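FYI - complex with flavin-adenine dinucleotide, inputs then prediction.
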Amino acid sequence: MSAQPDLLYSEEEEALRAAVRDLLTDRCDPAGVIARTESDAPHDLGAWKALADGMGLAGLLIPEDDGGQGATHREAAVVLEELGRSVAPVPYLTSAVVATEALLACGDRELLGRLATGRAIGALAVPLHLAPDVAFPAVRVERGLLHGQLTGIADASCADLLLVPGDDGGLYAVEADAATVTPQVSLDLTRPLATVTLDAAPGRRLGDARPAVERALRAGAGLLASEQLGLAEWSLTETVRYLKDRKQFNRPVGGFQALKHRLAQLWLETVNLRATARNAASALASATDANTDTDIAVAVAQSYAAPAAVHAAEEALQLHAGIGMTWEHPVHLHLKRAKADSLAYGTAGAHRARLAALVDLPSP
Amino acid sequence: MSVDAAELKRRTAELLAAHPPADTAPADFLTARFAAGLAWVHYPVGLGGLDAPRALQAVVDAELAAAGAPDNDPRRIGIGLGMAAPTLLAHGTEEQQRRYLEPLWTGAEVWCQLFSEPGAGSDLAALGTRAVREGDDWIVNGQKVWTSSAHVARWAILIARTDPDVPKHAGITYFVCDMTDPGVEVRPLRQITGEAEFNEVFLTDVRIPDSRRLGAVGDGWRVAQTTLNNERVAIGGMRLPREGGMIGPVATAWRERPELRTHDLHQRLLKLWVDAEVARLTGERLRQQLAVGQPGPEGAGMKLGFARLNQEISGLEVELLGAEGLLYDDWTMRRPDKVDFTGRDAGYRYLRAKGNSIEGGTSEILLNIVAERVLGLPAEPRTDKDVAWKDLAR
Ligand SMILES: Cc1cc2nc3c(=O)[nH]c(=O)nc-3n(C[C@H](O)[C@H](O)[C@H](O)COP(=O)(O)OP(=O)(O)OC[C@H]3O[C@@H](n4cnc5c(N)ncnc54)[C@H](O)[C@@H]3O)c2cc1C
């Protein structure tokens, strides 16, 4: 086995966290996020611009030579923790991680440069629920023009650039205004899905789709664990705060042992989740293209993170009780995101099935 | 300037050159290793360490393991290594540290823990074993129970009541007890595995010199917190390779014996494999955090996870083995010389793991600790807070 991964946060990473959290506290307060979900524009492009352009975070994974920051997945993971905490409706995971990784695989410097500044938002046109190693749909390619429909594409409705797999095995860049993007009514209000329809849309072939999609989804799945960590942390912290405050039977309900034990259990799951999420981020940061250890780290993270984050959000709702069931309390945003995340880039079950092969524990 | 990894590698190579493991008696090698400061590198110079960052111990361990150097068998001396040593380091006098730490680390002297009593388990501060001052000595009387390894121990960490007139946490003092002294009687206590790893210990007019007191008179509860926090990390936070714990034998059986596989077991195995890997990473992260400080209440989390995992995995293992799972290796009453969570067969592992959620604080108590001391939730209502120990209902 290789050297132990560093599972802690560096001082720079903590500083990055503080800066992102400050910005999100100002721009993505719960009431604002809830109000936005009911508007025509569910994405907060102002917050995105501040993060992507203002702070330069869209280009974290892109080399400096291509206009990015040349940072690693460890820093991107810290950003995602904070975005998860505030369920910020910004296309960070989909554009700055997944679409970016696909472009990195193809080595397209021009498009990387566009994404790096955050002025263009990219979306990989593969349904959100697919795991890294399964078959994905492709559209028909005829004389350089693309025809077909893809559904379940996360954040496509705010994308400028779509990365579309074609039936010739290529990955194509399509400008969003050459496609019809129709929002779907989505469980997760803050990361909505859309249908992409291509009717003789011009596309530019970037390279082979399979390795690009695999790399993109692997990074997406691995870093999703950090978003799930942020969600779980928020759920735990808010619930502890509320239960210290809320009195019934003449004492704070947080003093009842039945509830204390449930919260301690959530704490434990969050501690576990942090270690796996850090491990996945570190593994991705030092990964080469085909690296079993990284695949294992990602599969372990997604096998654990999804149920843990859902459990945290579900407990948060139950322990907030009546107030938790209301539209104005933000816990529903976290629950919807956590549940949707549990399907994104493959379910825990799909990742366990991947593991079975990776660690040689074959099915009967 | 503190010692770095390169310097530790250099010193390890030097130790190996001066004492080639192949031609050195294990005990001599361990003594030399202690003298070289490579026993626990984060300990002070002269006490087996080099004041180096704790995380760098791994560098030394890896080099020594690769060279086939003997180890000091942590399963045999776990209480000394995991609990007595850090307590001595934090609260002992220099004289005590010099006397006890070396033979503790080399394994020449085994330690046990005389904390629990028939009437004081989870409510450890309620303990009734009395220590009364007489000149330079303390005279100790009482009964301890469930004392692991007392039958092979040379020394014990002991807490006893020195002042019954103050509330229970205030009147406790912490001692080092010589298990060979007159008045110390150890009786085996057989447990569900058939063996007697733990014991009852009767203390009758045992004389302990005041020089074997650890910390101030009446400050024993605070000293005991160091022991308990370290105990939880020692039980739950061991460094393991992937598949290093209980999951190892199950995974091996799965690979080698396809006839045992079912779909149901496969799903459960994969889930537990992931949980074991997650626990391993969490332990690694905890150790990286510890490299900069003493364990706090967070260590309780490690122990909680460890207990649940061991119980679930060993339960699955018995089922996986089918007809063989209905058998047991040996019910003979034995007094093993080490605490071995994973040894022997699946049935043993299943039964021994039941102790993991009891020893070192039950899971219920640890959940309380996490809730109150980590999350800051309100404490349980207390009826014993301002009452002198002698006036408590028992
Ligand atoms: C294998 C093994 C080895 C051991 N080795 C040692 C040793 O070497 N040295 C030593 O000193 N001790 C040792 N012990 C003793 C161990 O520390 C105690 O058994 C333990 O602290 C629990 O105390 P108890 O058994 O008296 O249970 P009790 O305290 O009587 O508890 C009974 C039940 O009540 C629950 N409970 C108690 N209080 C609360 C509360 N406030 N809230 C919720 N639930 C509560 C407990 O969780 C438990 O389920 C060992 C025990 C085992 C099983």
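The radius of gyration of chain A is 20 Å. The longest strand of chain A covers residues 145-154.
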